[in-house]
Structure formats: C-alpha cells, structure tokens
Here is the input.
Amino acid sequence: MQPSLTARYKARQDVDGSWSVVDSVSGHRIMLVGEVMADLGEESAVGLADILNRDDNYLSSPTLQ
Here is the structure.
C-alpha cells in the first residue's frame, strides 16, 4: 500500500480564532472520546492532527461531526 501524499487530518483555524481538527476527506470536525475536536489552541490542534496522520491504526475511524 502506497502512503498518501496528503494528510487526512488537518488543523483548521475557525472564524472565532480557535482551532479544530478536521477530516480532509469530508471536511467535518472529528470527534474523539465523545468530544468534538474544536475550540482548541493551534499547538494542540496541529499536534493532534500530526498524531492521527502518523499512525493510521491509532484510531480505526474517528467519528465525524
């Protein structure tokens, strides 16, 4: 299997200045452990997206919101 050239999960700055982690395929925010990954700081959102993109097996399928 060839690795993807684009990251599936991305940090996105919201209108209010906070950050979210979104699925680049659907464009929706992801949900982990029952919480939407929104209202984050930039460092947290970027770090979480990096973790999710590094290991496809970390989560079988984050819930989308």
The chain has one domain: 9-64.
